[in-house]
Write a structure and sequence with these properties.
By secondary structure, the protein is α+β, with helices and mostly antiparallel strands. About 35% of the residues lie in helices and about 30% in strands. A hairpin with a 4-residue loop joins strand 2 and strand 3.
Amino acid sequence: MGWVVLLVVVVVPAVVIAVLRNEGRRARGRAAAAVVRVDGTGIRRELADGRVEEVWWSEVLEVEVLRASIGPHKDAGGVVLVGGPGERGALVPLDRVGATGLLGHLATLEGFDRHAFDAAVSARAPSRTRVWQRDVSPG
């Protein structure tokens, strides 16, 4: 009977913890951005697992800042979500915003508020803040 208690109290939780840690590592690996390109055309993010995210500036509908303290983007502090129509869009890790020149391109979006962006980036994690949305109202 003692070995059953030992199994339930020690071994099973240890196995569960190991599986969860491994799953977290795999999720971070899948979400890792191997290449992030931001230029006058748009954003292209190539992920380590071969997936590609991209959006052209002309189709960007909204920009959000996601601050993360857990999950696959916690090491970068979060991401900037640049969303287009349907499934189009790209995530730029917060730790790559400066190196990619993303902020300069975002500043060209009509009505983009740099102060709102800075406040969202400085917000305590976890948070998700829309900092820009395209005006799609008719005429």
